[in-house]
């Protein structure tokens, strides 16, 4: 499991964008997003560097 703090993810729309971006690089992964804390947890066979890149490409930062 990886856990990331996603910067500027402040609403449901942001969370949906992040979820879609991660799903592109890790389609079988299970995700949990906490908007209040900006936390993303991803479980399954995932490449953390690809997840980070997908989030950044979607316009969000990672703390």
TrEMBL record:
Domain HMA: 1-63
CDD domains recorded: HMA (cd00371)
InterPro entries in UniProt: HMA_dom, HMA_dom_sf
Organism: Brevundimonas basaltis
UniProt cross-references to Gene3D superfamilies, sorted A to Z: 3.30.70.100
SUPFAM superfamilies: HMA, heavy metal-associated domain
Classification via PROSITE patterns: HMA_2
UniProt name for this protein: Copper chaperone
A molecular function (GO) term: metal ion binding
């Amino acid at each position: 499991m990886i856990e990331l703090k996603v910067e500027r993810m402040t609403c449901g729309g942001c969370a949906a964008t992040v979820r879609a971006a991660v799903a592109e690089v890790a389609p079988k992964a299970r995700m949990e997003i906490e908007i209040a804390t900006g936390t993303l947890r991803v479980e399954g066979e995932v490449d953390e560097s690809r997840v980070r890149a997908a989030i950044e490409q979607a316009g969000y930062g990672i703390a």
